[in-house]
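quick one
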Amino acid sequence: MGDRGIVLTGLRGVGKTVLLNEMHARAEAAGWLTVRLEARRDERGATTVRRALARELVVAARKLTRTTLTGRLRDALGTISSFNAKIGATSIELGIGVNAGRADSGDVEVDLLELVEDVASALGEKRRAFCVFVDEMQDLDAETMGALIAAQHVANQRDWPFYVVAAGLPDLPRVLTETRSYAERLFNYRPLGKLARADAADALREPAERLGAEYEPEALERLLDATGGYPYFIQEFGQTAWNLAAGRVITDADALAAVQFGTEQLDAGFFRSRWERATRSERRLLLAMAADGDASSATIDVARRMSLLPSSLGPYRAALIGKGLVYAPEHGRIAYTVPGMSAYVDRNRDDLDAAGDLAR
Ligand SMILES: Nc1ncnc2c1ncn2[C@@H]1O[C@H](COP(=O)(O)OP(=O)(O)O)[C@@H](O)[C@H]1O
Ligand SMILES: [Mg+2]
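structure w/ magnesium ion:
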């Protein structure tokens, strides 16, 4: 894995979570000590995620108690016990004394660092590593995020086998760097996006071929155009074509029907569910962004389209970011978090604005 953590970034539906889970499974299979967290942006987010961290640590550590314990590993488990006792996440016992005075100060940065030192250096002796997987990391509270970055930093310097492997929206690298300026050098940043056309074609073709079915060439091209190469849409259109096809050959007519039906399904589910999370004023903002297509919008332009002062846009923008519907790719700009949102808004403009009062 090299000496750095990994950060997977991309829009919703590009396959970050699938990839994170795969890396997690491989780390587990290699006997590493792993913890998997999903960050959430709400009032109790910080407490929830720290409790989850402590609980997962205890569960992971219990597996280790079945192996032969070296002295250092035994100490490390004691540190996990004391970290957990401080946070009070679970009453599961490790059957090992609490390592009092380690990882129990109540300051998350200090505690995490002591935890990482004890656990990773003990595991390193056994050629194993300690790995924290964090999904939706842009939603992690600033303090826990800072603590994880700081721990990765010290681990890199001291050669402790500790890795943060994270996934999040395209602005995650910026959020990390704003939290700790040195974060830029700590991670391998891996942006995920559309699949190359040949890979997208394989993703459609291979599962069908395994079941003895094939695509007419025109059908495959048509589906590929409709998916835009986005994994979630490949999944959706591929499944719809499969369900609509009468025989073992998926025809162009099947593909045409799949594109129509699949689009309706996406509109009614994937897109609609996001749209419905927005309040009336937030919907006006989402509509105003659509003029820029799937590219990002300058907030100044969006405000103008809504006949608002840029400063009045702030609260709506913040609320939409909190709901995960838009993100800020850079200062002064916003973009949809899902691919195809502008096309959805264009397709359904009349429906979405039935009262005619959203677009002015
Ligand atoms: N490499 C891939 N090829 C084809 N489909 C994929 C690939 N990666 C993910 N998918 C599919 O795309 C969808 C979205 O994946 P997910 O990991 O949840 O995305 P994200 O976490 O980026 O929002 C899932 O239905 C998954 O099955
Ligand atoms: Mg995901």
